[in-house]
Amino acid sequence: MDPVAGIDARVYGDLPLVQSQIKTDRKWCEIDAKLNSPAMAGQSGWVRARVHSIRIGGKIGFIVLRRGFFTLQCVLAETDKTPKDMLKFAQK
Q1: Does residue 33 lie within any of the structural domains?
Q2: Is residue 65 part of a domain?
Q3: Domain membership of residue 75 as a residue range
Q4: pTM for the model
Q5: How many distinct structural domains can be found in the chain?
Q6: Which helix (H) or strand (E) holds 34?
Q7: Which of 1, 8, 25, 56 is most deeply buried (CB count within 10 A of its CB)?
Q8: Residues 26-74: pLDDT tens digits?
């Protein structure tokens, strides 16, 4: 796949497969009904899922992740920490 012009590969981009070669201390969250509870509001975590759909428009984008029967909608917005190039990368 061709790289998107203007994207800094040192910050984000395509990575090689992990294939469980190293162990990390990441806290993985299951995509299920509990993930949508008020207790999870404002918290961050790692999820394993496939990308079901991506919609990018202007300064905001929506990425829907799917695992089994459950889906998780993520919001990607252009901010001082998330440049517009990240939205372009997500769209490719």
Answers
A1: no
A2: yes
A3: 48-91
A4: 0.72
A5: 1
A6: none
A7: 56
A8: 788 888 877 777 887 777 788 889 999 999 998 999 999 999 888 888 8
